[in-house]
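Researcher: Here's the sequence for the chain we discussed earlier.
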Amino acid sequence: MSPFERKFGKYAIRNLSFVLVICYAVGYVVELLLPQLFWYMTLNPYAILHGQIWRLVTWIFIPPSEGNLFLTLLMLYFYCSLGTSLERTWGTWRYNVYLFGGMLFMIVGSFLLMAFSYLFMGDQIALIGAENYFMLCSVSFGTFYVNMSIFLAFAATFPEAQVLLMFIIPIKVKWLGIIYAVMLAFNFIQGPVNTKFAILASLANFIVFFLTSRNMMHLNPKQIHRRQEFKRDVRRNTGITKHKCAICGRTEVDSPNMQFRFCSKCDGNYEYCEEHLYTHTHIKRS
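Model: Thanks. This is the structure I predict for it:
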């Protein structure tokens, strides 16, 4: 457990992929009922610097794609399942850091695009106006690339996992990851400058993940899980803990977000986790 996780791990959001899907659902409703609000939700650095700071958050609500509702729901379910698998393997804290890091890179990328545009594309900005120019560029900085970074991370973590392409053809995730990498390279070469910055921003987060996790790439999910369990056992057996449940034996090392309380109805100093505090049999000295 890193010092940052030890200090801030309790603030990690569980089931973050499901939370993101809920945000997309809210965005779909807003887009259907109040489509004029769409341009007030995008990640537009020009508008942010002119007081519309809510855009730093609202762009996350914009769905990654539009079109057929059924296909969109399937796609969201697919990414939600990928994210859930990553969270179970990495842990809630690490998965939170990866997703929020990806969002931060996208925000930084949008502002770097703004600086680049003013330095090298001043004539084009003057032609159509800065407000209109950055409004059009903001469409590229959306949740599509954030979701695709989840897929890249999944492909790197579970390269041998199989999915059914078009519900029929079994294919390993690593090949889909390679196909996506080729598509990114093509879009980067052929796309406008705003697309290039958005792709670089999304890849930056994955590169950081790859460099910090390359020693785990060769392991399958069961091996990763066993390694994490082994580290927890070592910490439990060699470290000094403040709390320990009298029923299940869990400590704050096993579950950093778990709450522990003493029972006033038991005779003696017996401490329980939040799951057994109200369900245990009270210990009485007769």
